[in-house]
Structures
1.
Amino acid sequence: MSTPAPPAEAPGSTTAGRLSGFLRSGGVITPVLTALLAFLIGGLVVALTGKNPLTTYQAFYEGTGLSWLLPWTGEREFAAANLQSTLILTTPLILVGFAVAYAFRAGLFNIGGQGQYSVGAIVAVYVGSSLPDLPGVLHILLALLLGALAGGLWAGIAGLLRATVGANEVISTIMLNYIALWIGVYLFGLMGPLQNDTDPSLPISNDIVMDARLPVFWGDAELQGLHVGLFVALAVGIVFWVLLNRSVKGYEARAVGFSPDAAAYGGINVGRTYVTVMVTCGLFAGLAGAIDVLGWQFRVATNDIQGSQIGFLGIAVALLGRNTAVGTMLSALLFGALLQGTNVRNLDPAVFDPALAGNLTTIIQGLVVLFVSADVLVVYLYRLRRRRNREEEAAPPGVAEAAS
Amino acid sequence: MADSRHDGEAAELALELRGITKRFGALKANDAIDFELRRGEIHALLGENGAGKSTLMNVVYGIHQPDAGEILVDGVPVVPKNPRAAMRVGIGMVFQHFMLIPVMTVAENFVLGAEPRTGARLLDEKAATSRVRALSERYGLAVDPHAKVADISVGQQQRVEILRALDRGAQVLVLDEPTAVLTAQETRELFKVLTTLREQGTSIVFISHKLKEILEISDRVTVLRRGRSVGTVVTSEVDEAGLANLMVGREVLLRVEKEAAPRGGGEGLLVSELVVKDDRGLSAVDGASFAVRGGEIVAIAGIDGNGQSELIEAITGLRRVERGTIHVGGRDVTACGAREMLDAGVAHIAEDRQRRGLVLDFTLAENLALREYRAESRFGLLSPKRFVERARKLLAEYDVRGGAPETKARALSGGNQQKVVIAREIDGNPELLVAAQPTRGLDVGAIEFVHRRLVAERDAGRAVLLVSFELEEVFSLADRILVLFEGRITGELPPTVTEEEIGLRMAGGGAAEAA
């Protein structure tokens, strides 16, 4: 810029404008602060239970296996196994994170990641446990594809309802979650049409045939080593980045997200964009469900479907990752590590009560969502401190600086 | 209007600013500005969009802290850390966007933040009401304390804001573009109020970029240009052209020069028997027929709400046509959506550039691509590099200041935002250019730019359809004027028609001899 730019009077003139300014200016620092703050308060909760927060967090950290990445810090074998588990959990979190993030970018709030994930898992387990004669690679691809498509269709319903009759996607995706849940319970429950063929007393699906399981590339396949689904998620990460930042569809989605009116004026069909965005989100979440089933669960029990929280974690993942491709993947790793680190089997009761550890995950997850929603507050506090520092540094203001 | 009471330097200064400097990052929004407000004067603060007027007054009101400089109220240096502190020293400010709560009554809004309480710590309704009454009588500003804010007019809401500031003890009243939201009638009433306040000794800072109003109401004018004070003049000693020159820094043509319309342009726009419904399902456009040929500017004049918005939305494909036809360049486009209309060569300078014309959180490069992004894509992928190259070219060509291709549109001033919209729309080489209120909220420099561009497009043989509520703009730009009344074209007038004549037509009179 060669000319002295005239200052804009518009931004900052309204409260909303100032807030969105804050949000956008936070960059990398805010999510990091948000996470730190959540862990800090989580530590207070630990202290309230009478345990030492530092040793507890230390134990969590060891449980994540992240120390494997720093080989000089000691023991490797357990760390490797733990890291494999962390990454197994990270894989679907990346994908459901995208499912929420992409919707956010288009101005939609996809609460339905859970239902889309479940539908994907149900279809994948059906496909993966039948057709035993299909060659392995084809079988895997087919199960992944159909699982993803099922999720896409599921989410597409919410998009279609939004586009045609204006039904709020928050409500419709929540409802679709319940529908998916009870369909799953019906299918695999006692006397259900897809209940397993061997033990009629177990409300569980058939097992995925051996050929259709995702290959394990690190660790022992018998002991839940790391499967290739991680690479699928990473590849989808690249796809997501391109989709969002470099594609016509992503441009339209972002335009609609920022301003539906301006998008319509620019010739973008807003309703159609809602549908395609939701379908895309569902593809991500459905794929997550399929990968989990083919990668390490190998079967679906009714209480898996009822107990799964992964779709909801996806909301926290996307929020903390600021709905960007890289951010979402990093925050998926954080939550994957958190889930694994607080896993019951890793904890010494002397350090922290394992029964409470899972709850701590939920608390930290909740705090993250809370702080991200109150992101503005975090940035504000951060700014305030910086300003105060600056003021202290600055000499007492002179009456007038010589006009240049 | 300047009166002689202030003659002689005896008049004290209610507010004095010395060398106020305010930076936003690398940007000097205010650069060593001096400003003097005498007691009991109306002092206008004039400048283009982005000249630093609002910033300066936000510093006075404690919203921004100055990087350098001094603020003196009644000769005493003060440092307003926040609006509350500014109020304490007698500075009140009324913003463009009112800070009123629509669902509460005038009285309730009035006492917000300083609620009188009864013994039981409940809001003392009676005290609140009587406080409003007392003030409204004292200043001769009629407001109904029991009316809900949502139900009263914008002008009345503004009065409530002014009264509230006075109630908080404001000796210095800052009004930020107070007329931007008012009708002509309301503006006149506001001026009466301001005159009364001046007589009662209140000192008023009147921020505006409307020259006529400043000449009418103010005693003195301080002109800001790009963050610096260009000087202060006594209003009675200047005229419109003089102020415009001070403000823009060069000669400004207040009225665009144009040659006679060239003949033999393209077919342009043909609208026949058009019926369009509004959101309530009523026929807002009700059988309108007209044509705009290539090489002419046809203005639609009319009072707001006679079907202008719906007509434009139909022509740009944003609203469904009930009956009738629309042809552009000889093609029937009646059933086309927004995208097909764009492709058929309809360019649209939208009425509301912040809501429709621009995606404010997109970069300028992305905004400039809003028409053409599909054509420039390959395999569904965009080329950001080409976006940026194109944006760089257009930003230079259309003299957009204050932004690089990567700047968010939100960061630009109104005039520059409008230049971005115009650059995009005209660069698409349209058959028909629909300009809806293209100069709303712009300062004279930007208005001149927009007018010139519109005339240039006409001279290039394009059909230009102008919809404007500014009669002056209609007169100076149009080759033909169509009067729109209750959804119908009720007359065609030449641009030489008198204001009275057209006013009568717009109100539905004289329709018998409609063309």
Note: The interface with chain B takes residues 1, 3-11, 13-14, 17, 20, 24, 242, 245-249, 251, 254-255, 258-259, 261-269, 397-401, 403-404 of chain A (CB under 8 Å).
2.
Amino acid sequence: MKPPLSLRSGIPLTVRVPLVVVLLMVVISIGVSQLVLWRLVETQERQLGDLANAYLDGLESSLVDPVLRRDSWEVFDILDRARAVYAAVRPIETTVADANGLVLASSEPRSAPIGSTLPPSTASRTMIVSERDGVAIADRSLMVEGRQIGRINTRIDISPMLAERAEVTWYLVISNAVLTIALTALGWFTVRRMVAPMNVLLRHVSAAADGSVEPIPETQIRSQSPEWSRLFQRYNRMANALSERELLLGRVAEEERLAGLGKLASSVAHEINNPLGGILNAVDTIRVHGDNPKVRAGAVELVDRGLRGMRDIVRSILNSYKEDRPARGLTHADFDDLLTLITPEVRRKQIALEWTIDIPEGMTVSALGIRQAALNLLLNACKATPRGSKLGFSAGIVGRALELEISDAGPGLATDVAEILTGDEVSAQGVATSGLGLWVTRRIVKDLGGSVVVGKSKHGGAKLRVIVPLVESVSREVADVA
Amino acid sequence: MLIGSQADGAWLCGFPYVQHRAQLELLAVPVWRGQPLYQSYLISTAGRGATSLDQLRGDIHAFSDPDSNSGYLVTAAELARSEERPDQFFKQSFFTYSHFNVVRAVASGLAQSGSVDGYVYEVLKETNPELTGATEIVRPSEWFGFPPIVAPTSALAGEKSAVLRQALLDMHTSPAGRLVLDMLRLDKFESEPPALFASIEDNWDRVRELS
């Protein structure tokens, strides 16, 4: 039966293989020990049976006459002398009874006196081995011409045999234990050595998954076997390719940002052009009718409004694209800047913008990151929204997070494009389809520890919810984003 | 063998000498501990504490030999005085055909008591104290004539009997003879009259009367 996956996957290979070795060795040891002991017992009992038979054969031939004569002394004398002759058999007590089971004599007369009754032999076998008492009991009928004239019953000391058996058992246990420990250690060292390169590879792959792609040092590659060495070299090629890709993506993102800035500048130039024309007209008016205080005041007011509008636009652009400013928290002014930046595009496409900001001042979340992410998503939404349709933007606090919601009336997001915003991995095809804007947005949100949820908007298009947790201090978060 | 003239002399128990006195000539009698006499011992397993034959009733009893005075006749005669026979008095009795084996039988527990030659028992106490240590003397009997050296009467006229008698009687005077006597734990040999064995004959008569 397979162990549960969690158990199997939770135990390292360096432990699992020695454990398997231990289990195998224990099973093999028990099996071999049982076989050896079974053979030993069989051999010992066969030898014991042979010895007992030789002993009883010798007694039988001597005892027939005295048993027939019921000569207790001669029976005793034979048993007593046999004790020395058959010392190797180690008879503890041998008793001879007549045909009625009455004792004629015993080598131990005090335990089996003359005339006492010898218990009948109940076993079908001629010899019974009692390991608990350390004795073997053999029984032999004395027969003369097919008639039973008596019985010989002997108890043989088998304690040396049992001691030898116990000694063999201990030898087996100790030798098997030593062998098991040695093989386990060998298995552990071998597996540890085998999986050491795998651990190196695992460390580097794990580090790469966390964003730190480091090649395996050459010294480590050279110390490995040819197979591992080739694998490490291939990993290094892959790591280098990943690093280059990251670098390339960073450059492309920067270029994308600058391209966006160019587009925005073009749009803003158009926006500035109108107040600029008004300002020039007002300057001409002042030059011609400057003596008239009323006309002059009206013209100055016009110049002032035009210049303020231009100042707001310039400031918003500076706030969005100037990188070397100090870190700060998100404020209402940032949303005002966002509104300023997208207003030209909104006006151009005659979009009805629903703008709702419900946040406190000075939130502990990176202003730069949120501005860039929100601007990207709003520009994308403007692009997707048909002329004259609705576009919604709201910002609020949910729990301990800032939540932005952008809903448009466009065709919605394709799955691979949506995955750019929501998934961990980005397909090259998705990036090619949507441009780098969404990919940059995902990176910003991910760096801020947040997430993006894609849904369907009430206006018929896509609804994007950006959730970014508030942090204790914005400066560190901003540093991370940078 | 003596009666059949197959032997010129033998060391014989007093009982068979009495039984065949007409065919046997008394050559010499051993002197043991200063007198030509010995006793029969009733023995039992050590620690039993019996002091009389009556206390041995119902025992399994070991006799030495049916032709032995000390190993059978003395005990049988004592029972005959009470008009009892060994097979009635004892639960079971058997012959071991040796005084040494009587001591073995009692020491091992095969027999609870036995009738044994006092001289043999005393020598065994010196040579095999472990064996006799497992037994104890219930009581020694009266004194009887020590088992004599005898020759068949048919050989009386012969030179052999005279030479043998003289050799026995002079044994204690030579170093070699002294060595033999020391080994046998005897003092010497001397001439004794057949009357020395009269008490054995009385016992035999008593046993015969009962049977």
Note: Strands of chain B lie at 10-11, 24-31, 37-45, 60-63, 92-95, 113-117, 135-145, 149-152, 188-190.
